[in-house]
């Protein structure tokens, strides 16, 4: 599945300066609220990249972030274009936009394969089997027989490849992980 989303997030607008009223004022408030939630999501995703404890990412707090969740979770590419105003009267807003974009730039939106997924297991087993000079694992005082160790791993890899091929719709004989 693929998708393309183009979002013009406008800007954090100060109502006192724009003199908006009625529907425009309400729209500016909604934009500011969505931008605040987007900032919370980006901050939580950034924290989750470097923490064992996974912080809640509040995607459902706004329509914008709920919609963009698909992209932020690695299902697509994310690009951000930032427009700033060089006027001295817009210094505070420009500084905030630059801080926001610097934080957003540090977020990795590519999904990490879970350690127990079939493709990850297959890759780990293939890497381990392909290491030059690999010695059998030591158990107690003796070496474990390679064949005895290899058979369950090969069976597990085969099952994982079949499961992965079924999920991806690939032919069962296809090579996984490379």
Write down the overall mean pLDDT: 73
Task: Give the H and E element order.
Answer: HHHHHEEH
CATH topology annotation of the largest domain: Methane Monooxygenase Hydroxylase, Chain G, domain 1
Q: Provide the CATH architecture of the largest domain.
A: Up-down Bundle
The value of Rg in angstroms is: 25 Å
Major sheet: arrangement of strands:
1-2
**Shape by Cα distribution:** elongated
> Which structural class fits the helix and strand makeup?
mainly alpha
Structural write-up:
Its main location: cytoplasm. InterPro entries: KIF11-like, Kinesin_motor_dom, Kinesin_motor_dom_sf, P-loop_NTPase. Keywords: ATP-binding, Coiled coil, Cytoplasm, Cytoskeleton, Motor protein, Nucleotide-binding, Phosphoprotein. It is found in: Cytoplasm, Cytoskeleton, Spindle. The chain has 178 residues and is mostly helical. The protein contains six helices and two strands, in the order H-H-H-H-H-E-E-H. It folds into two domains: 15-105, Up-down Bundle (Methane Monooxygenase Hydroxylase, Chain G, domain 1); 118-168. A two-stranded antiparallel ribbon has the order 1-2. Helix 5 runs antiparallel to helix 6 (146-168). It starts with 14 loop residues before the first helix and ends in a 10-residue tail after the last helix.
């Amino acid at each position: 599945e693929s998708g393309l989303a183009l979002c013009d997030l406008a800007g954090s607008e100060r109502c006192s300066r724009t003199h908006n009223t009625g529907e425009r004022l309400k729209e500016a408030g909604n934009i500011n609220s969505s931008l605040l939630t987007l900032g919370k999501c980006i901050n939580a995703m950034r924290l989750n990249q470097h923490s064992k404890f996974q912080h809640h990412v509040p995607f459902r707090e706004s329509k914008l972030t709920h919609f963009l969740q698909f992209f932020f979770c690695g299902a697509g590419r994310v690009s951000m274009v930032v427009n700033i105003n060089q006027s001295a009267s817009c210094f505070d807003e420009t500084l905030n936009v630059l801080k926001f974009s610097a934080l957003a730039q540090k977020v990795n939106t590519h999904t990490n394969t879970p350690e127990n997924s079939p493709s990850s297991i297959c890759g780990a087993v293939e890497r381990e089997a392909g290491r030059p000079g690999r010695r059998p694992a030591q158990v107690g005082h003796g070496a474990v027989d390679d064949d005895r160790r290899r058979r369950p791993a090969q069976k597990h890899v085969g099952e994982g490849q079949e499961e992965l091929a079924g999920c991806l719709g690939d032919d069962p004989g296809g090579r996984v992980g490379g």
